[in-house]
Amino acid sequence: MDTGGTFTDCVWIENGEPRVLKVLSTPHDAGSAIRAALEEIGPAGGAEIRHGTTVGTNALLERTGARVAYVTTAGFEDTIAIGRQARPHLYRWRNTPAPPLAPPALRFGIDERTLPDASILRPVTAASLAALFQAVRAQNPEAVAVSLLFSFANPRNERAVVRALEELGVPVSASHQILPEFREYERGATVLINAYLAPKMGSYLNRLQNTLTQRYPGARLHVMQSSGGIVSAPQAAREPVRTILSGPAGGVVGAFRVAALAGFDRILSFDMGGTSTDVALVANDPGGASGLRTTNESQVMGLPVGVPMLDIHTVGAGGGSLASFDRGGALRVGPASAGADPGPACYGRGELPTVTDANLVLGRLDPAGFLGGGLRLDVERARRALAAGKGKLKSVELFADGIVRLAEATMEKALRMISVERGFDPREFTLVSFGGAGPLHACALAQGLEIPRVLVPRLPGALSALGILMSDIVKDYSRTVMLRLDPGTPRQIATQFRALAAPFAALETRGRQEMKAEGLRPLAQRSLDLRYAGQGFELNLEWNGGADILERFHRLHRQRYGYADPSRALEIVNARVRMLAPSEPLQFNRERLGRGSGAQALERRRPVIFDGRARPTPFYRRERLRAGDRFAGPAIVTEYSATTVVPPGWHARLDAGLNLILERR
Amino acid sequence: MPSRTPAAAPDPIELAIFKNAFHAIAEEMGATLRRSAYSPNIKERRDYSSALFDGSGQVIAMGDDMPVHLGSMPMSVQAALKALPLEPGDIAILNDPYDGGTHLPDITLVVPVFPGKQSGQPAFYVANRAHHADVGGTFPGSMGLCREIYQEGIRIPPLKIVRRGEMDRALLALILNNVRTPREREGDLTAQIGACRIGAQRLREMVAKYGQPRVERNMQAMLDHSERLMRAELRQMPAGAFAAEDFLDDDGLAETPVKLRVEIRLDPKRARAVVDFTGSDPQVIGSINAVFAITYSATFYVFRCLLPEEAAPTAGLMRPVSMIIPPGTVVNASAPAAVAGGNVECSQRIVDVLLRAFAQALPDRIPAASSGTMNNLTIGGLDPRSGLPYAYYETCGGGMGAIAGAHGLSGVHTHMSNTLNTPVEALEYAYPFRVRRYAYRRGSGGAGQFRGGDGLIREIELLAPSQVTVLSERRRFAPYGLAGGENGARGRTLLRQTTSQGESERELPGKCNLFVDAGAVLRLESPGGGGWGAAGNGSSS
């Protein structure tokens, strides 16, 4: 069940076939759409329901989270607001900053101090705890976030503060539990976001779980995390900061799993919607759990989020992005968007040209077949919008072509950033394209980056929901250890590694306990964040206790940053444990491959403009294509919620899983 | 620069595509440097810049980095070009303010890019600049109160640090022998080299994809596009001459204020502007002199801010702007004047005086003065935990000036600086310090219809005997308000020490060097921004 802005997508497996139901979302209470969908699907009792939620994302976007008290070491109450002292725009003198999640009256300090070496300089006293309790209570917060300096090194003071404030009876988020890692602002902001979302998420998930249990006794609710792993609803309610990218993470997992079933295990996922585009890279390299790459340096709404999230890069270019010229005569596409209202000109209300209008004018969209014919596209209106905005360009078609190329350049830049810039060669990848607008542009992007293959999965409009269904249950744990690792013989290295035994044991004990409480028997995956001593950023590498990690580190460092220096000492910054309970693998039916040409799915031929020239182009209906069908571009494949462009020089085929595979010949 | 009419835009779509691609390369260079560098000043605070240049050394794209570096980097490329025959695989290094640099801690690397056959003239250049926490000289951190450049650190003319792909170990050894933290410097220089190589590689990939003529054509198109944007802006400005003065507190040695004067002459009919610094004081003994490159950068920055957000800061922006900067003045110092503070302090005052002049022409578009100082704090000594020398350098943000329609931001770096702070927890791992307080300095922003932003307070306890250098401004002359808004509060620095006589606290001069014992506490209070409009005039809280 993936809640989206317009639709809630439901995917379930029936007789080995993925089935889809789209119901209208119910923004005031996302749960009612889910209940309605379940009524229609009619699952048996004891069902396991997996959920991609936007409750957290929306509360953060719309700033409708809780009234949070933020508690830190006295003298540092403003740190959460100062952040990294950066101004939002380099060349702008007029700024209107977003209001802080915790305004000054809700920021509290307590006299205490822990030091970098984990010793406690000043313990908290009963008197200071009592005074803090009174001051916080007087402000009537709905949630509390606690993040003391160096609490990751020694949480004793922080624990005492948490114990005292739990008496308030509101959710308390503690930094040594949510993110025991150094850098006080990034840690504090993550904990603050968690507290900000906790009441809303808690009551939403509780309500949903209760109604589900009443209607379907024994039903269990799980929630998708931004890391690409599933977690139980009570866990998600305690740590909602881990669910901010719930839906998009489902899309990446779906893309990866579907591609893997089709035989491709290195993918770039490309999810293009109305206002933005999400891209991610997944490679089954040694290093990350099941190939999904997470980052601990995400930014959401300008705030740092330090818990692991899939490394999804978002750019403000989508089907609804507006096109215009600046005063110097250069074209711009996005980030301004026509959104859902008024939407692209061709939807009938907008006046300004968008990427969708450009695609329509180039003939790439079927005006009558959009959303299964549910929305008729107005070609003339799109042409008028383009004609009005085309500036000095000679023709509407030239302008349309320019809009599409520029939008594609923006998306290509995003794909370059997650591949080439991180040392990956796109020529070794498959581009998995989904979302309503993705498959329109996938081949052009693949061509620009020399990606040899594009895969458009079945159900490209519901891939997030499918991905959520295919995800493993995952919980991530970490702790800053800050240990120096000098070069030496394997034995000397092994001696130095001994200091890691205790922190890892502690992390794993906690993980096993939490997973066991849910009846799970997880695997533990250990990894280390390493850097050269003195650097400020780390590389994460899987670790099985061996000294080979050093060589892998040097290799990865050279790949990423252009140099390596094995004579330098290293620093082990964080110890990480991922507890993972694999989901039962889904088995889909596979069709027998035929040798068809797709003729049975051919609907009509219409002129489509490629490289400035109109060419007669066949339009195929995706639902009627069969496994093994092959045909050459130029061609257009239409289906309920997406349109795929097969440009000249590309070939299309349907594989046994009915994925549409496009390759350049 | 001669005035000329730019050619019509060749292809607005290509222009946009290439603009994005060039900018992405500069940003990637910065990210690479940040992630693989060693000193907190580079890795945590991002005190660096990256840029791309065409074959004649004109800047085409810059990362969103440090404005004070941006206008002045082309001069590094020009200096390297003039001094050295650059061949494939070479990398030039320099920091001499009188030959392509700005102040000695800023070390610049320049890389020629040969996309096709590996000979002839370079087709493009990439460069990056990073502020190194120590380059030798009299004071740890190399930002002290010197009287001539020879005291400020090692002075590197344009030289090849990498020849045909091979590091010049002799030159590197010479540099490292003259600095206090050689291992860190070596690491940072290696990271700079890695970042430059990535930038050069990306440009070569672009040429492989589009062909060299097309890349070159679009570089020229970007320069022309910037020029068109600037001329369109100048055409809408009022005609006239607008003059202003502002003052630096002193040069740290004498107590005399140092005057900066500018007259901006706007000619909307011809879409031109002249910026004339005649009347500014002669260069001074202390190290607050700015070299030409700094004054050019500050002017570049102010004109860039008058354009829309997405305008690319290329060399073309400045084609319609001519500058008159008399040599031997504090805004165009000649050798061997000391210049460490020109980059960080005088540069901010140049912006202040330019804005004050522009405010007469464009009252609703110009903000009141921002904090006007980078509050440079440099501390060095032996770290008792390792027994090794350390050099710490950090600047501190302040209040931003208010503008018609918006309050100033609090606790940010403004104008010519854009560095981040060092996290307290990173700081205490790296140096023998204990941070006692980090907070907004409430009430320091100037009152007004729109309030100036507040400054910051940072209190650091030194856990070992240390040598401290403070280089700061706006201790005497407060950041000005505009349109009836009040001035921002002046900054101050306090030193608290406990001796056998008990605890004592005193205010330090704005610019000073001193030795302190373990246990001393430094408290820096940075200035607030000026207010805009008379308070009570619909003032909001």
Short account of what is shown:
Chain A has 665 residues and is of the alpha+beta class. In chain A, the strands form 10 sheets. Chain A has an 8-stranded mixed beta sheet with strand order 19-14-13-22-23-34-33-30, with helices on both faces.
Topology overview:
The complex is a heterodimer of chains A (665) and B (541).
Chain A (H helix, E strand, L loop, with lengths): L1 E2 L3 E8 L2 E8 L5 H12 L6 E4 L3 H7 L6 E6 L5 H4 L24 E4 L2 E2 L5 E3 L3 H13 L4 E4 L9 H10 L6 E3 H4 L5 H32 L4 E5 L5 E3 H6 L7 H16 L4 E7 L4 E7 L10 E2 L2 E3 L2 E3 L3 E2 L2 E3 L5 E5 L5 E7 L17 H7 L17 H11 L6 H23 L11 E5 L3 H12 L3 E4 L6 H7 L3 E13 L4 H8 L3 H16 L6 E10 L6 E4 L5 H14 L8 E12 L20 E9 L2 E9 L8 E3 L2 E4 L4 E4 L3 E5 L5 E5 L1
Parallel strand pairs in A: 4-11, 5-6, 5-9, 9-10, 13-22, 22-23, 29-31
Antiparallel strand pairs in A: 1-2, 2-3, 7-8, 11-12, 13-14, 14-19, 15-18, 16-17, 20-21, 23-34, 24-27, 25-26, 25-27, 28-29, 30-33, 31-32, 33-34
Helix pairs in contact in A: 2-7, 4-5, 9-14, 10-11, 10-12, 12-13
Chain B lengths: L11 H25 L3 H4 L4 E6 L5 E4 L4 H4 L2 H11 L7 E4 L11 E8 L10 E8 L27 E5 L2 E2 L1 H9 L4 H29 L1 H24 L4 E9 L9 E10 L4 E5 L15 H14 L15 E4 L15 H22 L14 E8 L4 E7 L29 H7 L2 E9 L13 E8 L3 E6 L20 E8 L2 E7 L2 E6 L4 E5 L16
Helix pairs in contact in B: 1-6, 1-7, 5-6, 6-7, 8-9
Features:
heterodimer; A: 665 residues; alpha+beta; 8-stranded mixed β-sheet; 4-stranded parallel β-sheet; 17 helices; B: 541 residues; 2 domains; 7-stranded antiparallel β-sheet; 5-stranded antiparallel β-sheet; 20 strands; disordered N terminus
Describe the fold and architecture.
The complex is a heterodimer of chains A (665) and B (541). With 665 residues, chain A is of the alpha+beta class. Chain A is 30% helix and 27% strand. Chain A has 17 helices and 34 strands. In chain A, the strands form ten sheets. In chain A, strands 19-14-13-22-23-34-33-30 form an eight-stranded mixed beta sheet, sandwiched between helices. A four-stranded parallel beta sheet of chain A has the order 6-5-9-10. In chain A, β16 and β17 (303-305) form a beta hairpin. The two termini of chain A are 39 Å apart. Chain B has 541 residues and is α+β, with helices and mostly antiparallel strands. In chain B, 28% of the residues lie in helices and 24% in strands. Chain B contains ten helices and 20 strands. In chain B, the strands form four sheets. Chain B has a seven-stranded antiparallel beta sheet, sandwiched between helices. In chain B, a hairpin with a 2-residue loop joins β6 (159-163) and β7. Chain B is globular and about 75 Å long. The chains are: A alpha+beta (665), B alpha+beta (541). At the A-B interface, α3, α7, β21, α12 and α17 of A face α1, α6, α7, α8 and α10 of B.
